[in-house]
Design brief:
two-stranded antiparallel sheet, mainly alpha, 89 residues, elongated, 2 strands, 5 helices
């Protein structure tokens, strides 16, 4: 399976990103990693914040490939696309 196949299946669509958009996503990652390391938050909440940071990093890679997930199953498609972008290993 390739990203092209995913587009044909309508799991992804074309997306033209920008330096600003990538910078904004990286700012969210930095904020979330900082917040996840904060004391006073439950472990569950820290996990949720760290998950969001990881999801944003995956989103950056997908955007750099010129794609974005369709509305249905966005998180799943974003994460599952990583081996197609980075390789299985």
């Amino acid at each position: 399976m390739t990203l092209k196949n995913w587009k044909e299946n309508r799991w992804l669509r074309e997306h033209r990103t920008s330096t600003q958009e990538i910078g904004d996503l990286l700012s969210i990652v930095e904020r979330d990693l900082h917040d996840a390391a904060s004391s006073g938050l439950s472990t569950d909440w820290k996990f949720g914040i760290a998950y969001n940071a990881a999801l944003k990093l995956c989103t950056i890679l997908l955007y750099a490939e010129g794609c974005r997930p369709e509305k249905s199953l966005q998180h799943y498609r974003t994460i599952q696309s990583m081996p197609l972008i980075l390789g299985a290993q």
